[in-house]
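pinning this so it doesn't scroll away 📌
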Amino acid sequence: MILLYLKKAALLAAVATAAYGLAAEFGPWPAVLTCAAVAAVACAIGAILLRTSTIGQVTWRNSLAGYLIPWDGG
């Protein structure tokens, strides 16, 4: 369980670092729009992966989609 939180924290730190770098280089609005566009593409890819995976079987598609579409469920 702790490993899951550490992975989520690492992903969040990577996104924050990228957003800060983009904001420093191009300004805040291009950084926000870029982060939103990347998040939308990641969600679309995750949805496609889940749609094409077999129900009841855990495959690489399910694992990758879990990173692209995080869900706490609680």
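📌 and the second one:
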Amino acid sequence: MNDLGSSKHVVILGGGFAGLFAARALRGAPCTVTLVDSSTQHVFQPLLYQCATGILSEGQISAPLRRVLRGHRNLHCLTAHAYDVDVPGRRLMCKRPGGTQMAIPYDYLILACGVEQSYFGHDEFALHAPGMKTLADALTIRRRVFGAFEMAESAAEPAEQRRWLTFALVGAGPTGVELAGQIRELATKTLRKEYRRFAPKDARVLLFDGGKTPLASFSPRLCRNATDSLRDLGVELHMGSRVTNVDETGVMVTSNGGAPEHYDAGTVLWTAGVAAPPVADQLAKATGAERDRGGHIMVGDDLTIAGHPEISVVGDIMGLRDLPGLAEVAMQSGWYSGHRIKRELAGQPPAKPFRYLDLGSAAYISRGKAVVEAGPVKISGMPGWVIWLFIHIAFLTGYRNRVGAILTWWVALTRDIRRERAFPTRKVGLVTDIYNPPGEVTQGR
């Protein structure tokens, strides 16, 4: 695998923010770098909900890693799915498309695989309530959201029509809030004149969460502002509610210790909870690494696992000082790990301990309304929305994507047009996963 003549080989698992910035930091380092990703696409996850609701295309929020890193002569990308780590042998165990196995040797391993959707032990919910972590998830949600309005148009009974016009979202963090706001905007603005047998503005968006308020990670004042904005949009907030079952008819909910109640909903979307992917579980077991309650792998101040200085853990899967799962944490930790290895390979003094520079958090609620928090600075409403806009333009990968997003947002905001509304009409059933052996199938969503 070390085909560039270098004596050392660095393997980066994951092409998200952490993996991308680790790769960038290793440019020109005296080593070979292999970036392993199941799709070799860098996806701007904070804007997946805009892809799901027809504002941005999948191409505008993603970029081929090979293209982004084409100037890195010591790096090559590999499309593979990692499932285990041979720690004593220093090998990353992977599946190639088609299901055949391969082992990638490493001298240094940077685990930047991110996290997966968690259904809190009820993985059967995934069949009826897709999460939103990948491009495939966003396109699945797009099909379900726009498809629900089409089903309502042809519904024979009022009860069926009401069910299709009811959207239940589980989880009131940034993703749930942003998605809920966009569905209501879609119904009240973009689609308001397009249907004849019902009024799209009558669509109900139910947001369930076990906490006391949406966006609980923000300050109390911003939480109140977000709550008011969501209610003004027409989002129905069900705080202190725990979803106990999901099926094709809707959700079963228990609120404040009361009796279970069923809510009919044609579309259920899951935006609550994250879990470590299987490869991270295997690595933790193999190294004996400590983990926190959220499943994060605990690391030292140099972002390596205790007793294994050759293994760095960065991004969302990293456990250190209760740092949040934000893109900024991923970027900075990825850059630090790549830079630390580069210094070590060059024989320079060890890097200083990792320090996170908190640049704040932001969440989009609706057109002209967002919340932004950075230390003592707490901004909401139109000023927050403007700041949110500039932050996301700055961090989008690639000049083409930035320009495309600006033009698309301009059309969407000034003319209430969402051009990215295409979705397949064929229901996805049993489909082949590219990492399964031939003949093996996976239940699609």
